[in-house]
Amino acid sequence: MSATLEKGLNAFKEVIDTPIASYFSSCVHCGLCAEACLFYNETGEEKYTPIHKLEPLRRVWKQEYTLLGKLAKMLGLSKPVTDAELAEWEPLVYDSCTMCGRCSMVCPVGNDITYMIRKMREGMAASGHAQEDLIGATTRAVNIGSPMGIKWPAVLAQIKHVQAETGIEVPVEREGADYLVLMSSMEIINFPEYLSALCRIFKQAGVSWTLAQDAFEATNSGIQIGASDLAREIVSRIVVAAERLKVKCVISPECGHAFTAIRWEGPNLMGRPFGFEVKHILEVLDELRTAGKIKTTGKDARPLTYHDPCQITRRGGVVEQPRRLLGDVAADFREMPDAGVMNWCCGGGGGVSANSRAEPLRLEAFKVKKRQLETTGVHTLVTACANCRIVLEEGLEHYHMKVDVIGLTELLADHLVEGE
Ligand code: SF4
Ligand code: SF4
């Protein structure tokens, strides 16, 4: 056995905690998770059944932690997991799972298959079978501070641009501010209008906020690749900055997995509760709206619909907030079929969008989103995750669909009452 395989199998053994053991032992092989998965649903290929993607992890659990499995292994009736098998499973674990959580919603025995996939990725990373593009993104995140290699001068350039455009000062390193605002690399590069929109809304609402020079990046590729130590390092930068600046709340940007990383995984990774709150930007905007601090005028006349980002809606519980916000600014809002907690993934979560090898499969899986959109008949799609937004734009272009994609924060800012 090679040293990396041994390390990987030991990692597999270590990640098998009580929930994992209980999930494997309670699986009744009903196949309901298959129907919930966009990759199985759109291809019909058995290998994309969620529970099948976990087969090496299941074998390690059976052989190491069950009496029958141990006996079968001793008698040579059950073969140990090999390096070749892990190499074969690598595309299943990294290309055909966006960690969208839809399968976990339908399992009749309550198995959180998404949690299991995350644990499986930890074993894959430790055994030297992490996906190549994600290794690059994680290395850049650790060494440079951003998975896309963005450094503070690039953020500063955007800040200057926003200040010139809006006439509003962007606060940086402001100790004692109420909120620390994070951004994602994709917003910084592809959607600079997010920061501009935020400035205008926060100015009207009188929000006390700041950016931090050494903790502007919210994305966490350590979570996606399955490397807890790296995920912890990335989260700790935000925690250190939030504590240094003594903020009351950290705002996760329009990015799905960033919200999961800092809000739900963050305290577990750090091994302690945070002394500040973590909220998604939509939660903050909804609170400001409820408090009467956001004043909008007019409504967008275009028929439009909302794509629920999986990590924000299904895994994060932010369901009604975007709908209340849309209610203020949309004259003809139409829900997609399966909207809300059972919405279909865009196909690019969980690091899949950063994985160039997965592109053909991702576009195949996008057919479900295409059908959802066609049902609504809209040509404007609103969302609240920069990663979803890029993946949606690529899918729409691939299928020659004329649909504009916009961020909810920007849509809201477009309707702010002028001069307030
Ligand atoms: S839905 Fe649950 S019980 Fe059914 S096969 Fe999938 S993991 Fe097993
Ligand atoms: S988390 Fe989503 S993409 Fe992954 S196996 Fe489950 S349904 Fe499929």
Describe this structure in words.
This is 4Fe-4S ferredoxin-type domain-containing protein. With 420 residues, the chain is of the alpha/beta class. The chain folds into three domains: 5-130, Fumarate Reductase Iron-sulfur Protein, Chain B, domain 2; 135-290, Rossmann fold (3-Layer(aba) Sandwich); 293-415, Rossmann fold. 53% of the residues lie in helices and 8% in strands. It has helices at 3-15, 18-26, 32-36, 38-43, 55-65, 67-74, 83-94, 102-106, 113-126, 132-143, 152-166, 185-190, 193-205, 221-225, 228-245, 256-270, 281-290, 320-329, 359-365, 367-376, 386-398, 408-414; strands at 179-181, 209-210, 249-252, 277-280, 300-306, 330-333, 380-383, 404-407. Strand 3, helix 16 (256-270) and strand 4 form a beta-alpha-beta unit. The longest helix is centred in the middle third of the chain and has 18 residues, at 228-245. It is globular and about 80 Å long. One iron/sulfur cluster binds at residues 27-33, 51, 107-109, 111, 113.
